[in-house]
Amino acid sequence: MFIDLHNHSVYSYDSTRNMERIITEAIEKNLSVLGFSDHLDFNQNDPGNEYYNGYSQFREFNALKEKYSSKIKLLLGIEASLEKSSEEKIRNTFSKFSFSYKIISAHFIQKTVISNWVFEKEKTAKNIDEVDYSPYFKALNDIADFDDYDILGHIDYYKKYSKFIDHKQIFEKHIDDYRNILKKVINSGKIIEINSSGLRHKCIEQFPSVFILELYKELGGKTVATGSDSHKVGDVAFDFKTVYNIIEENKLKIFNPK
What is the pTM assigned to this prediction? Predict the structure, then answer.
């Protein structure tokens, strides 16, 4: 019985699925818990800028939660894209709605959407040593310093767009950054997620890599959230057998919000 806390619906600019269709798919796949975590973005260069409508979503969600209460536990969370310039707007939105959990992710680096940022950084590089990934880790550090969240989303998200396949080399190059960020997450009572979406993209690996999870555990991390980051039909709980095997092998606990 899986728990999938990372799913996007029509309340995200980049998904066309209505919430009920996602719920029925989750029930068909025998999930015990389904969470919605639509995008909350405040970057003027992004098509999702100020797209989110929490009032409409909560009205629809509450009706669906009652309708399906005997079949599945439903939760309404959020995935916010944090930048220093958006902190106040994010806090303001969080104060208006009773989200079951809050995911914060780095989708924009130096005001640029991460896919374009990685492409520009790596465009002329022949190897990883020629790439300066430090602004990405600065963005993660800003998230770790932000107090109003529960889950740090897909911590090594850059690898979704990277042309380099040696993810461990990037990890080793920035291990001090990872250690510092993970310590902050753990010491503040927050957690990271295991996000299966990488398994359906060219990196062919979940976020984060196992060696990052091992460092998380070594530093005292005990619990992880599980999410598919689904945006289309068929992707709910995508390859969760792999995710749950990793969790079992590393003796981690699974986050189940109330």
Answer: 0.97
